[in-house]
Design a protein that fits this description.
The chain is mostly helical. Helices cover about 75% and strands about 0% of the residues. The longest helix has about 35 residues.
């Protein structure tokens, strides 16, 4: 009886986490507390005791790379240019790692459908918030200005999460029937509008890459994928025609043989990051301490900020702030997530493992121009996707 109630609590906490991981960090962390409580409750009331949680922990492929990731973080923080600031963020890193462990324990194969539905509900709600921001800017904003959809995040990070959720809705369209299929179709188009309203150019390449994979591997969803991408193009085009700032944003991607301002700044930031790695190869500057030396390597402000803390490239960012050990730990973690999703896809050919492969590859492309994986909302979303892409066989009620 206790096991059944604990399983129900664990299932509820998973759905709460799936629905809130994009919308509210506090709610998502509350769901994680409930997950931990359910697991401990089951361990104390089950005849097996802690045997099952320990088996799940041992079977979780992310435990080892996450442990190395945290060790690399601590090592770099010890030698940080600002140790106090680096260690002040350690609790956030531990919570993100703990989320992966708990979500992997909570997800079951039979429970993925409900978790996916609630994730899309939360993502669609975030998309609608962003669309509202975009529309408000059009009708109530400063004339000639540009209000980008950001939901509860920065516009670029918002677009990246919209893209990840779009891929899930897209692949599920081809696998579902009846009312559920209608829900996935509605979610897909809401998320398409949410992505488009962010007017984010960087994530667009990753989205196209992910959608290309889904297009070739999920035939039943092809016309919807094309329609979703068409919506994004239309919104981008409309913003260029109707808004001066939007027109400049689209038109200045390239100008003859000149790279636009944003791209040029990123190139100089990446070069600065490589120079920092050359000078701090083993420890980096310390997590979240890049601002201490940024101005010494990049002699002009970024967005008016002299001591800018972000290099807009996850891989260079990790190398610069945590050295080569931190970069290798990150690459091992990302490779483990991708390998697990790919293995599951080749074994089962199900839409959730396809989501894990297509969306994660697209996300890795997005991280060439951003570093949002460091953010709790983004990490929660990616770990949920990783757990759902290839869970173990059911060992409890869903």
């Amino acid at each position: 009886m206790g096991d059944h109630k604990a399983d129900k609590l664990l299932n509820f906490s998973l759905l709460l986490f799936a629905a809130s991981c994009i919308l509210s960090i506090t709610a998502a962390e509350g769901a994680l507390v409930l997950m931990l409580g359910a697991i401990l409750w089951k361990a104390f009331t089950s005849p097996e005791g802690f045997a099952q949680p320990l088996r799940e922990l041992h079977a979780n492929p992310l435990v080892f790379p996450l442990a190395l990731y945290i060790i690399a973080y601590i090592f770099s923080s010890i030698f940080s240019l600002d140790p106090e600031h680096s260690f002040s963020r350690l609790d956030t890193e531990i919570i993100k790692a703990l989320s992966a462990v708990l979500v992997f324990s909570a997800v079951t194969r039979s429970g993925r459908e409900k978790a996916g539905i609630w994730f899309l509900v939360g993502a669609s709600a975030a998309a609608l918030i962003g669309i509202g921001q975009f529309m408000y800017g059009i009708f109530k904003g400063v004339p000639g200005s540009l209000t980008r959809a950001s939901g509860t995040m920065h516009a670029v990070s918002h677009a990246e999460i919209m893209a990840v959720a779009m891929v899930l809705a897209g692949v599920l369209i081809g696998a579902a029937k009846g009312r559920l299929r209608h829900f996935y179709i509605a979610s897909f188009f809401i998320l398409s509008l949410g992505f488009a309203a962010s007017l984010s150019r960087g994530p667009a390449l990753g989205l196209c890459f992910a959608m290309a994979i889904a297009f070739f591997l999920q035939r039943n969803a092809r016309k919807f994928i094309i329609a979703g991408l068409a919506i994004i193009v239309l919104v981008f085009g409309a913003s260029a025609l109707l808004n001066k700032a939007g027109r400049e944003r689209i038109a200045t991607v390239t100008g003859g043989d000149k790279i636009d301002y944003t791209a040029n700044v990123r190139l100089t930031m990446w070069k600065a990051g490589m120079d920092i790695l050359r000078d701090y190869p083993l420890t980096g500057t310390g997590p979240y301490s890049l601002r201490r030396v940024f101005n010494s390597y990049h002699n002009r402000p970024v967005d008016g900020v002299i001591d800018f803390p972000d290099l807009h490239n996850l891989y260079i960012q990790r190398a610069a702030d945590s050295g080569l050990p931190g970069l290798l730990a990150l690459m091992l973690l990302l490779w483990t997530i991708l390998k697990r999703a790919a293995s599951s896809f080749f074994k089962y050919r199900d839409p959730y493992s396809l989501w894990g492969v297509a969306a994660f590859l697209g996300f890795l492309v997005m991280m060439l121009t951003d570093s949002s994986f460091d953010l709790p909302r983004t990490a929660f979303c990616i770990y949920l996707m990783a757990a759902m892409s290839g869970p173990a066989e059911d060992s409890r009620s869903a």
